[in-house]
Structures are given as C-alpha cells and as structure tokens.
Design goal:
The structure is a homodimer of 326-residue chains. With 326 residues, chain A is mostly helical. Chain A is built from 15 helices and 2 strands. In chain A, α7 runs antiparallel to α8, α8 packs across α9 and α11 packs across α14. The radius of gyration of chain A is 20 Å and the shape is globular. The mean pLDDT of chain A is 95.
C-alpha cells in the first residue's frame, strides 16, 4: 500500500525535478523553485494521481494536473506566510523572509498563473474546461477560507458551523479538488467525481480537526511541533469554540480571560486551558466529531462504483491522514 | 467613431454594474468592488469588444472576456501598488492604503482567479482552451515585466532593447491580449489573431514611449500629473536610457550624477535634466522611435483581412492612445 503511495510520490518528484521553473527573470522564478523544493508530503499530487488511477492506468497523463494542485498549494503557502508574518516553514525561511515581501507577492502571483498553465496542458478541451471550472471554484474557496480565518481572529462569537466551513474552504477544498480533478482528467462520470469530492472534503475536515486535537493533546514525542502552540497563540481552535459553547458562564469567562491576556508563563497557561477543556470533556466530543467526518468520508468511498481493490489505497490514505501517520 | 467607443464603454459599464463582486466574506470582496469602480478608461475591455466586433456582431457574448481582462488589469494594479508603496490611484486611496496590505494581497489573488472564472464562461470548449492559453501567456508576461521593472531600478546598464521588452511585457502584452482574445472569442482565424496581437503590442509600446515623453515634456495644462515626476523619482525612462547611450563620457557622468543624488531643488533638477536631454536631441529621437512603433502597428492593421470600415475604430483608437486624447 505505502509502496504504491511512495511510487506515486517518486513519480511526481521526478516530474517536478524535470520541470524547473528557473528562467529569466531569475528574481521572479528562483523563489518558485525554492518553495517547490522545500519538501512536504506531496499529498495533493498523490491524491490527484490516485484518483486518476481509479479510472485509467496511464498515470503519466495526470502529472500536469498533479503539478497544478501542488503549485497552487505552494502559491497559497507563500501568500499566507506573508499574511501570517511567518518566518519559518518546514524549518527553513519562508519566501518573504528569504527574499522580501514584494518578491513573495509577485512570485506567488506567477505560481497561481503557472498552475493554470499546467492544467491547460490537458489536451482534450472538454476535460480541460471541466478541470478549469473545478479549479476556479476550489481556488476561490481557498481565498475565502483564508479571509474567514483572518476575520475569526477578531470575532468572539464564531460558531462551530462557521469554523467547519472555514476549514473546509481553507484546507479540505483543495484536497477534494485534487481528487476530483484527477478523476475528471481520467474521464470519470459526474457521480464518481461527486463522491470523490465529498470524500476529500470530509477527510480534509477530519484531518484539520485532528490537527487542532494534536496541537493541544498530542504526544510530545510524536508531534512535530510544540504541544500547546495554539493555546499560547490564543487561537480559536475547534476545542476552544466547543468549550465556549458547552461551558457555563463562569467557565466561559475563565477561558476568555485565559485567552485574552498576554502569555507570561506558557506552561502554566497551557495546563490551565487543557484542564478546563478536559473538565468539559472537549477532547472526547471533538474526537467524536472527527470520527463522524471520517466515517462519512469512508462511506462516500464505499458508494463509489469502483472495484474494492482499486479503492484500498484511498481508504488507507484517509485513515493515515487523520491518524497523521503520513 | 468616438460614439462607437462610448457605446462599448457604456455596454461594459452596465455589465460591470450588473455583476458586483460583493458577497461573503465581505472583507475579501468589498475591496474588489472598490478598485473595479475606481474608474479608468476601460481601454482593455473596449479593445476586446472592438476586436470581437470585427468578426461577429453579437458583442454581448464577448462581455465575459472584456470583464476578464479588466479584472486582471485591476488585479495587477492592486498588487503593483503594494510593491510600489503607492498610496493614491486616480486621486483615491489604493487598496492597501484604504484597507491593509494583507487585504490587498488576498483580494488581488481572488481577482486573478475571478478573471479565469469569467473566461470559463465562454461555453465552446475549443475557444475557451485557446482563450486560456493566450491569457496564461499574457498574465505571465505581465508578472515578468513587473519583475524586470523592479530589477532595472537597481541596474545602471539597462539596454534600450531590454527596456522595450519590459514595457512590452508589463503594458503592451495585455492590450494585445485583449484584442486577440476578443478575436478568438469570435472565432477569428490564427492569422487575424496574430495581426491583432502584433498591432496591440506595437501600439502598447508606442503608448508607453509616449507616456515617458509626456511625463518630462508634456504640456502642463493638458498632462494630468506633474510634469517632471519621473525625473524627480530618478526613473530610468527611455529618455534617460537613450541619453546615457548617446551622450559622451562627460554628459553620461553629468546625467548619472543628477539622477543619483537626492532631489533638493525639484525645479532646478528638472530643468537641468531636460536641457541635457534636449541638447542630445533625445525628444526627437524618442518621438521617431514612437512613430516607428505606431507605423508598424498601423501596418499590421492594414494587412488584417477585414473590411476597411470595420477597422476604422481601431485605427482611431491607436492614434488616440498614442496622442493621449483618450
């Protein structure tokens, strides 16, 4: 199973290596190669190739689609990192930190255009038009999700359904789009594309809920980042939103107080917030929500009319994504 | 003649008014409506509609293409204004000045995507694929032109051919693209599209050369901005590049000296630079270059196999653009 994923990852990486962006003006394109080579799991191109393989075997033909979603994903990282004033990504300087903000804006812009140029390599004009339509929708959702995320920072009344929509747009839409575009490239019918889209959205939401859970309750030995980072940054994760919903007036006030004052003693703050969350059984409730999304995702995959053996890698990737094995 | 242009402008403005961007999240889309309604001559959509009309009469069908090029143009203004730290455009605050830089980045991004979404409204998939291909190429050239412009600020050895390529990419490519995409939408053949593309590029270059001329030698009563602005900002316009090429060592040193020291007395500096340029006959030489580009542009239009009466508005617009009547 993981052999198949590794093989697709290698295939994508070979294609990426064979298609460097580097050309004149170098100030525009060098940052593109820099961010594209910074690594990552290459989850979106792998999903696009896996979805293509459900319907057709010449997976090479889907490499431009895989490239388009990976270039788009990296474009969104470059611009988001400016907005979040994030100086590090995967342990390396972000584009605006390594070069400057103007470079990060313009190199990001050209990446967004390049992602369309890769899609335009799909020769069949009917398929290309379908791909562009889905891609436009996904790209707009990613921007809207980022805006909602920014808006929520300054709101104290974010509802859980609003939060779920935000993470669907910001994260899940592109995972879903990678799958549905892979399927469209292979000529899959509308019903199959719709199943894969819903599968991707639900897995993506489960993945993001798990991200919130791990950040506060993950095993420090296994979790890559510092456990409690979201709490220190006063982030309104789904854990916090659920606690603000479930707690009594006193508990709500306590939590708001903890998250609105500057952090002086980090460990003390993390411990206080976590014990309040546990007192309200938030981890259990949020795990239940995560598992509901994962179950609904797997149900979409069950219903997809493709031979079971063919679907096995997608079942595996869904479970791995949410468990964060990969 | 100008009646026809006014009519197309009104038609476009009515379409724009009927298609507001405003929706949730409002923080993302309000800035889009703001910049789209800031005015301007709407030259690019008019060119797209005029080119469509050369071949087909149902000009309404080309309105999404006209919208795509105008949204793209405004996207490039929003991001360029951040990079240039420009606080005013058409006498109003720029998007990043009115809102903030993060908003200008993200609203610009969604505009770039929206321009593709408008192109995707062209139903014929063969025509849509051709439009996307041209648009990708033009959009990439606009980014590359902006990068060359930035690079040239820090170089003292910019050649005139490099400068001409920069203005072709940054300005002329989108004027040409508006024309060729209008023609493609009407099903024009490749030869006609190529003539319109070259016409647009050459007119665009002549237009930009005229822009440099007017900024230093325009009639203060007619020129909208302050005459001498480029000189005060030490901009390497084509006038300066030509003077650095033609002047002797002493004149080159004098000009470099004038343009590398901070401006203390603006009027004195403007007068000194202009008299040096006139001494070297730069205005005459640059006017000759401008007229060559305009003549070559008009020749492309002559060769275009369309009834002469049909082409009259394009001849008129070319002369007006370079004369800056419009």
């Amino acid at each position: 199973m993981s052999n198949q994923l590794d093989q697709l990852r290698q295939q994508f990486l070979a294609y990426l290596a064979a298609h460097p962006f580097r050309k004149s003006p170098i100030g525009l394109y060098e940052p593109v190669d820099y961010i594209m080579q910074l690594g990552g799991k290459r989850m979106r191109p792998i999903l696009a190739l896996l979805a293509y393989q459900l319907f057709k075997k010449d997976v090479d033909a889907a490499l431009p689609v895989a490239m388009a979603v990976e270039v788009f994903h990296n474009f969104s990282l470059v611009h988001d990192d400016i907005m979040d004033a994030a100086d590090l990504r995967r342990g390396k300087p972000t584009v605006h930190a390594k070069y400057d903000t103007n470079t990060a804006i313009l190199s990001g812009d050209v990446m967004l255009i390049k992602s369309y140029q890769y899609l335009a390599q799909i020769g069949d004009p009917h398929i290309q038009a379908k791909l562009i339509q889905v891609f436009n929708q996904v790209a707009i959702e990613v921007c809207e999700g980022q805006q909602y995320d920014v808006d929520f920072e300054n709101r104290s009344d974010v509802r859980i359904d609003e939060y779920l929509k935000m993470i669907e747009y910001k994260t899940a839409a592109l995972l879903a789009g990678s799958l549905s575009m892979g399927a469209i490239a292979a000529g899959a019918d509308e019903a199959a594309v719709a199943h894969l889209d819903r599968f991707g959205r639900k897995v993506g939401i489960a993945f993001q809920i798990q991200d919130d859970l791990l950040d506060s309750f993950g095993d420090p030995a296994k979790f890559g980042k510092k456990v409690g980072g979201d709490i220190c940054q006063n982030k309104k994760t789904i854990l916090i939103l659920q606690a603000l919903k479930d707690g009594n007036a006193n508990e709500q006030a306590q939590l708001n107080q903890l998250l609105s004052t500057p952090t002086t003693n980090e460990q003390q703050k993390i411990t206080a917030v976590k014990s309040l969350l546990e007192h309200l059984h938030i981890p259990t409730k949020v795990k239940t929500l995560r598992d509901q999304y994962l179950a609904e995702a797997l149900q979409e995959l069950e219903t997809l009319e493709v031979e079971a053996a063919q679907k096995a890698p997608l079942f595996a990737i869904a479970n791995q994504l949410v468990d964060r094995v990969i």
